[in-house]
Amino acid sequence: MIQALQLILALCILVVIHELGHFTFAKIFHVRVEKFYMFFNPWISLLRAKKFNGKWHFAFLSRNLEPAVEEVKDAATGETKKDEKGRPVVRPMTDEELQALPEDDWRRYPDNTEWGIGWLPVGGYCAIGGMVDETHKTEDLAAEPQAWEFRSKPAWQRMLIILGGILVNFIAALVIFSMVLWTWGKDEMPLSNASDGLYYSEILLQEGFHQQDKILSIEGQEPQELGDVVQLLIIEGKRDVRVLRGTDTVSLRMSEDLGTRYLAVQNDFDRQEREKARQDENYQRAHYVLVQEYVPFVIDSVMPENVADLAGMQKGDSIVRIDSVACGCQALVINELRKHPLDSITIGFYRNGQYQTAHAFIGDQCKLGVIMKSKFDFYPTNHTDYSFLESIPAGIQYGWDLLVMYVKQFRLVFTKEGAQSLGGFGAIGSMFPSAWNWQAFWHMTAFLSLILAFMNFLPIPALDGGYILFLLVEMITRRKPSDKFLERANEIGFWLLIALLIFANGNDILKIFF
Predict the structure, then answer these.
(1) For residue 220, how far is the Cα from the chain centroid?
(2) Which residues contact 289 (CB under 8 A, 6 or more apart)?
(3) Residue ranges of the chain that CATH labels 2.30.42.10
(4) What is the DSSP track for 374-429?
(5) Measured distance CA(199)–CA(179) in Å, rounded
(6) For residue 148, how many other CB atoms are within 10 A of its CB?
(7) Closest to 168 measured CA to CA, from 13, 20, 12, 36
(8) Closest CA relative to residue 255, chosen from 279, 234, 270, 274
(9) Partners of 60 in the beta sheet?
(10) What is the share, in percent, of the chain residues with pLDDT greater than 70?
(11) 375-426 tens-digit pLDDT
(12) DSSP letter (8 states) at residue 76
């Protein structure tokens, strides 16, 4: 529930600021903004509000207003004209017809924006007058372009109106990152501080790594943090690695398909974890870890009446062996315990420098019932505080680096394994912490703002990037695409986006049952 609330709040913030970007530039260039809605509102709206005659008017859980249009009559017969699909042909009301409407009819005041909240939480929109999009068809437009319409403005002004949402999302992300650094600072643990080296998952062991290897460079670049290793090997596909193994320097060559193999292994691991969670509602799912610091398994506290407590283990015990398998770090101990559900094992550990053993029965959760000392108890971290002025360039640099990393990993989406990893709202919500944490919330909100800016920049009709593409073509060729062409392109783009939305959220649903 807490993750869902964080996701909803973040999406509300991001949708509003994105549409405010369009709204602001539209107002700068004197373009009429008919509606501004958070979430979509087919047929009914949770809330509608509009200011006219000096005061605000509200409508709650009400049907949407009928469009301000009139049916077109045939001059000869006086009957309503029909289009090729048999629908009545309509035209926008003239100013005289609008003024003839009752004083309390909201449609009488088209210059005033209608603000609202829809019931379908998959985005939002800003209905800009004279713009062919999901809110306007070509038949909704007046026969002659009006001065206040989007289509009447020069191409550069239309470009800025479209770019407004993307720019605001990008700038908002950088501002939030800067404020996070100013408020909480930044904690880093350089790889050089991990004196015992790194733990490598099976897929990296297959590439030639040995446990506790220290990575010196990846294609000449020295990774500063653990995240750099994942980015360089998986996201960027770097292949040449130099490691320090004991006192020897060893060169390794990664496979070309390491990234897709990693995704396949991760997907399979997640599937197994989901299956265990379905069989036991109390099962706590684990996450696949590619590489992490080599941290000793030292008990910080023992939970009463649990596996370790019943086996006589105590705070400070350092586990080094499960049965006959040597386990020098937390990840190896955890991995080995996972192989022994509902089984009796022998635990080898050190207590006050003396090697001892204990016998224990492991339940179906494959846990000892202890809290381990964290990596921060063994390896020092670097904390940096930022003044307000220092946080601005640091936040900009951090946000830019994060965007570059996201763009680079986007290539994996077009692989079979990457497509299977795609997730919808459920996957996004799971990225938020399960306990409310303002630092994590704002960091995740800023990251989603970057993603929203990037996704909207893609040249797909119905997205901002599609309009930008058509405007660039218009500027180069000096020929404006017809309104009918834009309408058809938007319809195609809209259904492509709906298909992608169904696919991504369908993956989330399938992961619940399979």
Answers:
(1) 31
(2) 199, 201, 331
(3) 295-380
(4) PGGGTS--EEE---HHHHHHHHHHHHHHHHHHHHHHGGGGGSHHHHHH---HHHHH
(5) 34
(6) 17
(7) 20
(8) 234
(9) 47
(10) 90
(11) 889 998 889 999 999 999 999 999 999 898 888 877 776 676 666 666 666 6
(12) T
CA distance 458 to 476: 19
Separation CA 453–CA 456 (nearest Å): 5
CA gap 485, 254 in Å, rounded: 48
pLDDT in tens, 150-207: 888 999 999 999 999 999 999 999 999 999 999 999 988 898 899 999 999 999 999 9
Instruction: For residue 479, count other CB atoms closer than 10 A to its CB.
Output: 9
For 340, the token pair is 């022994």
The third-level CATH classification (topology) of the domain covering 295-380 is: Pdz3 Domain (2.30.42)
CB 68 within 8 A of CB 140: no
Q: How many residues does the chain have?
A: 514
- Tokens encoding 154: 């020069």
Q: In 10 A of CB 445, how many CB atoms? A: 21
CATH class of 189-293: mainly beta
Q: Report the 10 Å Cβ neighbour count for 441.
A: 19
Positions in the chain short of pLDDT 50: none
- Taking residue 288's Cβ as centre, other Cβ atoms within 10 Å add up to 15
Q: What is the mean pLDDT of the chain?
A: 86
- Type and span of the H or E element at 180: helix 155-184
